[in-house]
Amino acid sequence: MGRSNVEEQSLGELVASATGNVQKIVRAEIELAKIELKDDAKKAAIGGVLFAVAGLMAGMIVILLSIAFAYALVGLGMWHWAAFALVAALYLLLAAVLILIGWLRIKKIDGARRTRETLSDGVKMLKRTREH
C-alpha cells in the first residue's frame, strides 16, 4: 500500500511545517491588526479634530452669550461697565469654584496605594527569605 505525503514526512518535518504555518498565521494576524489600527487611528484623529472644533465653537458661544447677558443687564438699567464687570465677576466665581473642586479631588488621589502596599509586602517577604 502507498503511504500519503503526510505519512512519509518525519516528525521533525511535520513540526517544522506546523511551525512555519503558525508563523505565517501570526504574521497575517499582525498585518490585519496593523491595517485595522491604522483605520481606527484615522477615525480617532478625525473625531478628535471634530471635538476640538466643537470646543472652539462652544467657547465662542459662551463669549457671545456673555456679551448678550451683559447687554441685557444694560437694558435693565445697569451701567455698561458695571454689567460687564458683573459678568466677569460671575466667571471669576465659577473659576474659583471649579479650582476648589479640582483641588479637593486631587487631594483624594491615593497614588497607587494598593500597589505600594503589595510592593512593600513583597520586599518584606524577600528580606525574610534572605534572612533564613
Tell me what the structure shows.
This protein is mainly alpha-helical and 132 residues long. The chain has 2 domains: 1-78; 79-132. The chain is built from 4 helices and no strands. It has helices spanning 5-8, 11-75, 80-107, 113-131. α2 (11-75) runs antiparallel to α3 (80-107). The longest helix is centred in the first third of the chain and has 65 residues, at 11-75. It is elongated. The N and C termini lie far apart (67 Å).
End-to-end gap: 67 Å
Q: Quick one: how many beta strands? A: 0
What order do the helices and strands follow?
HHHH
Count, helices: 4
Question: How much is the radius of gyration in Å?
Answer: 33 Å
List keywords for this structure.
132 residues, 2 domains, Phage_holin_3_6
Summarize the SSE layout with pairings:
Layout: H1 5-8, H2 11-75, H3 80-107, H4 113-131
Q: Would you kindly provide a brief summary of this structure?
A:
This protein has helices spanning about 5-10, 10-75, 80-105, 115-130. The protein is mainly alpha-helical. The model has no long low-confidence stretch (mean pLDDT about 90).
